[in-house]
Amino acid sequence: MRIRSFLLGALCTLGLGAMMVSCGDNDNEWDDGDSKVELPDSRVYILNEGSIDSNNAGIAFYDPQNGDFIDDIFYRQNESRLGDTGQSMIRYNGSIYVSVYGSNYIAKLNAACVQEKRTLFSSDPDLRGGVRYIAAEDGYIYASFYGGIVAKIDAATLEVKAKLNGLGANLEGVVICDDNLYVANSYEIVFNPATNKNDYVYKKEVKVIDLKTFSLKETLTVAQNPNKLVEEDDNVFLISWDYFDESYVLQFIEPKNNNKVSKLGYATDMAAGDDVIYLVDSRTDWSTRISTNTFSYYDIKAGKLVGSSFLKDAPAELINKSISMMSVNPENGDIYIGTTLFADGNGTMYRFRKDGTFVEKFDCGGQNPKAAVFFN
Length: 376
Hints:
mainly beta; Methylamine Dehydrogenase, Chain H; 4-stranded antiparallel beta sheet
């Protein structure tokens, strides 16, 4: 793969403030205003979480057409670091939104990764627990927070418009389906006077919030320690980090069937694309940090879990890597699988075609790849 850094200060070929046509989702156009770097039309942005308390989160840029790469385009464009613990990143209405847990803020970036808005939550007593995951619909960003709160935030101004309290303890993943926000109520930390230590108390709840009224609609019972949620074809899929089961628990929530919850099997990560939920079950020996990965997928149209791998010619080492993220380009179905060395070095990204054909691998430019967004 050819890797080169773009020259700083290069003039954007469409001019500052120019608009580009986007065909990757419902966004009709995007803005490259104030970019210091000349960028191609096809772009992948990778959120690197970094390590806790290290202030080393970042966003990398990758050109899927020719392999050009910038290890921290956020720093290049904004001359400042992203902060402590990058948590979630989405694309919405031609912009990028990123939540940074340790620094406790949400930023709005344009399509060139230039920061336009930032809202800090540290001074809000309700939101001091830290922002976690974000989703967007109808002009609003919905963010989960530790402390059991979901905030409704204006997507244009990043002003907090409303807060829904009392949803639990530490909230994690969020996803929107049929005008409802599904929120994982994961765990709380409770002091145990008998041991003089804190205990983790794992919850078994997914909260369903009616976005039309921004009120709690119902509470679903799921496997304990619910964490990651994705939506595909008006269905919701959940992974619970149940440390007492043989692996993390994959579940299927059916909004059109009174939110019926069914256990499908085991998976540690997942990504959705074109009627398919791509799955990996990564089981790690923590004494050696060596993982054994099993890839599979859920065929939504057929309604069945397929045990065979969706990858055709994956590099052999991927079977034993610690996988920290998977994401699918919604335009062409390319699959991106990120692996981590934790705090010991940069992560690696493996790219595959929709049919599972291996394309290439490359250094992520930072520690612990967490999420990716796509412009095509």
